[in-house]
Amino acid sequence: FHDVLHLAYAAILGWSPVLRALLKVKRKSNPAIDENQDGARAIIIEEGISTWIFNYGVRHGYLENFKSIDYALLKSVHEFVKGYEVENRPLWQWEHAIIEGFSIFRELKTHRKGIVTADLDKHTITFEILK
Prior knowledge:
- There is one protein chain.
- The chain contains six helices and two strands, in the order H-H-H-H-H-H-E-E.
- The protein is mainly alpha-helical.
- The mean pLDDT is 92.
C-alpha cells in the first residue's frame, strides 16, 4: 500500500517519475525531460524519498492525528529534489502530500481494499470504501 505515497506526490505536487514510468506516460517527446525528469535518477530519488518518508511514518504511528511534520525532514526532502521539476514546491505542499498519503494508507490498511482517486487538476487524493 505504500505506493499511495507516489499517488499523493503526483496529485498534490504534480510529480512522480515512478508513476510516469509505471503508467508508461514518460515524456519521451522531449529527450532532456525524458532523461532528467522522468529517467532512472529521478525514479531513484523518488523511491528513496518514499522509503525514507514511509519509515518515518511507521515510526510515528502512520502519522495519525499529525497536522505537521518535522521541519528538518521536510528541508532534507527539499534538498534531495534540487534540480528536479518539483524543487520549487513549498515545504507545506510536501507536508500536505505526505500527510494525505498516509491518511489514504491508513484507510487502505484498515479496509484492505478501496478506490483511491488522485485528481491531478484539483491536486487532491481521496479514498472510497468498496462495499
